[in-house]
Amino acid sequence: MLKNILGNSIVQFVIGRLIGLYMLLVGVTTRWTRVNQAAIEPFWAGQGKMIACIWHGRFIQVHKLWAFGPGVPRAKMLISQSREGGIVAHASRTVGAEVIRGSSAKRGQQKGGVEAMRQMARHIEDGGIICMTPDGPRGPRMRVKRGPVQLAKLAGAQLVALTWATSNRIVFERSWDKFVLPLPFGRGALIWGNPIDPPPLDASEAEFEAVRLQLEAEMLRIAAEADRLAGIPVVQPAPLKPEPAPQAEETAHAS
Questions:
Q1: pLDDT tens sequence across 149-180
Q2: Apex CA 87: angle with CA 86 and CA 88, to 5°?
Q3: Which of these, 24, 91, 188, 212, could form a disulfide with 20 (CB 3.0-4.6 Å)?
Q4: 87 by DSSP, 3-state: which?
């Protein structure tokens, strides 16, 4: 019954808009400390190609880490084609970000991942910015998959880690991503990582993996720093597990 309700386009629109408005409320009522903003400012001015990366559990305040306005490149967020993804898409549009819908193949069923990759590459080539959640849609938590690095390689775009934390929050400990719900009227931190160069088009598997690990390390570093600045316990990543064989259609996205 609930799945049928959430699958209704009108219900998705209403819930998504309410979530988006809540995101805006938290954004304007939190006293933010900004760290390393200089790393992102050239991209706000349209200088260079960029793929922004934020952990799935923290996408709800990602809009605070980008500038929206005249002359600023358009930002698009990769969102899954799930029912929940429809709600997230409306929330993203409410805060100013456009969306691209697509997911990895599952049990042999195509979920639009290949077409989404093409759309993202075209958007970057046209001067836009893509934002991805490298551990989405189902984890493991805070572990970078191959999708963002593959897109960076194809598009010749740098990878930039983003994160935030707030002193007032609820962490959903039983969710796979330990989703963080920020609460208004607290203090918080916005942190931008240092840009990471993409692997070359003729990169070996070792070179590709080195970039993936560098991105993961940077995302973990700034997430822990943000939590410490906000004065809250650090959210830990999932334990490392043996990596499965690469899949050609794997992408990362929000759900």
A1: 999 999 999 999 999 999 999 999 999 999 99
A2: 90
A3: 91
A4: helix
* 225 in Cβ contact with 35 (< 8 Å): yes
Q: Determine contact, residues 103/81, Cβ cutoff 8 Å.
A: yes
DSSP-assigned letter for residue 61:
G
DSSP strands (E only) in the chain? 31-35, 50-53, 75-79, 98-101, 129-132, 158-166, 169-171, 180-182, 187-192
10-40, pLDDT tens digit by residue?
999 999 999 999 999 999 999 999 999 999 9
Beta strand segments in 64-186, E: 75-79, 98-101, 129-132, 158-166, 169-171, 180-182
**DSSP category for residue 56:** G
- Strand duo 187-192 + 31-35: pairing: parallel
Q: Are strands 98-101 and 180-182 parallel, antiparallel or unpaired?
A: unpaired
> What are the chain's domains?
2-230 (3.40.1130.10)
Q: Which residues pair with 158 in a beta bridge?
A: 50
d(CA 57, CA 230): 16
Cβ atoms < 10 Å from Cβ of 205: 9
- Whether the CB-CB separation of 44 and 67 falls below 8 Å is answered with yes
